[in-house]
Amino acid sequence: MKFQLTEEQRRLRDEVRRYAQDVIKPQAIELDHAEEHPTEILSDLSDRGYTGLTLPEEYGGMGEGMLELAIITEELSAVLMPVASALALHLGVAEAIQRFGTTEQRDTYLPSMATYDTVGALGLSEENAGSDKSGIETTAEREGDEWVLNGHKQWITNFLHADYVLTYAKTGPEREGPHNITAFLVPTDEFDVQETWDTFGARTVKSPRATLSDVRVPDQQRIGAVGEAYVQRKNLQTGVNVPARGVGIARAALDDTVAYTSQREQFDHSIGDFQGVKWTVGEMAQRVDTARLLTLRAADRADRGHDTAREFSMAKVLATQAAVDNANEAMQLHGGIGYTTETHVERYLRDARLLTIAGGPNEGHKDTVGDEVYAEHPRGASDHDRDI
Ligand SMILES: Cc1cc2nc3c(=O)[nH]c(=O)nc-3n(C[C@H](O)[C@H](O)[C@H](O)COP(=O)(O)OP(=O)(O)OC[C@H]3O[C@@H](n4cnc5c(N)ncnc54)[C@H](O)[C@@H]3O)c2cc1C
């Protein structure tokens, strides 16, 4: 077994890292404070082809897999997490069209999504459908060749700069759940924005709440089979971006802490000389490594076509908690200056805090891991059939 990226993957990582560190990081504090959407950065990412990273080459994409998505996401999240989420949510909508759309839908949307001329956003959550999507109240009723949508969506990341929202709506009675939810590609201008929220972190990319009132969409905008959208969604793999975002913040917090504690002197020593600091920094590095290993393992299994439920949820819980813990330690070890907006550290902590909640709260992912473990070992037998 080789714990090693390929030559091409390393080249991709180095290329993204250079751009992220040289171009994004110097403006990250300012963009965050101004709550300014990273429009130019996303346009640069599109020029580099990353907005079509995981799309097949026949649609103008780069034809890369989830490992490459995890690699790119870590680098972007290490400098400004919301840039990574804007890119990943867009690629997630593209993945749904690619996997479940018709040939015509793929031909219509994917080439312009690869170039970022068409931008996607995800409309799954609602006020009463957070962790539990069976609570979706938005409805879609069929009228001839059209569907009439009513309801609202909440936390639609990218919405203000997107063209379409992949909107999940109830199309069947409760007793048919979860086979009663269908997805539609709804133009953003059909929604009315109700609330843009003032959030603790992730301040450069807004996630508004918006309503739909008797919005008609043709059946050609339905993505996937009627009633099967939520079930199909579980097969999407771009969700690996969430733990990868955690790895990015955990790593950035470590890097900044090592740099700061190496040069900051108190009691005639650099504070990195103190055993208490060394142990903390060592633990921070352990968290980065375990978070990255679990994330890349989940991505690799996805690319090899294996089941990822257990691995993805493990990575999500561990990597997002690593981001929170490392950002918190980084603030402590930066002392007073870490508590100010002069350094990146306070933003790491605010941005990291989102990750244990969004993408499904960690508690739900812990349930998944537990369920998967019991399903694997029904009689307590040690039946490990996985490589790693
Ligand atoms: C900034 C931001 C961006 C987002 N972007 C998007 C997006 O683009 N598209 C989209 O559709 N959604 C998005 N979301 C929604 C996100 O996925 C939900 O916030 C998340 O699923 C949790 O739902 P909730 O906030 O309603 O929390 P709730 O479901 O009300 O849960 C509240 C808390 O209860 C606890 N809890 C929940 N379930 C369990 C359980 N099974 N066991 C134990 N404890 C539990 C957890 O501590 C959880 O944090 C975003 C959210 C935020 C804040």
TrEMBL record:
Domain Acyl-CoA dehydrogenase/oxidase C-terminal stretches: 242-372
Keywords in alphabetical order: FAD, Flavoprotein, Oxidoreductase
Family: Belongs to the acyl-CoA dehydrogenase family.
Top-rank taxon: Archaea
Name of one Pfam family that matches: Acyl-CoA_dh_N
UniProt feature, compositional bias: Basic and acidic residues: 363-388
Protein name: Acyl-CoA dehydrogenase
PANTHER family for the chain: ACYL-COA DEHYDROGENASE, ISOVALERYL-COA DEHYDROGENASE, MITOCHONDRIAL-RELATED
Residue span, Acyl-CoA dehydrogenase/oxidase N-terminal domain: 6-115
Matching Gene3D superfamilies: Acyl-CoA dehydrogenase/oxidase, N-terminal domain, Butyryl-CoA Dehydrogenase, subunit A, domain 2, Butyryl-CoA Dehydrogenase, subunit A, domain 3
GO MF annotations in UniProt: acyl-CoA dehydrogenase activity; flavin adenine dinucleotide binding
Cofactor(s) annotated in UniProt: FAD
Organism: Halopenitus persicus
Domain Acyl-CoA oxidase/dehydrogenase middle, residue spans: 121-215
Region (Disordered): 360-388
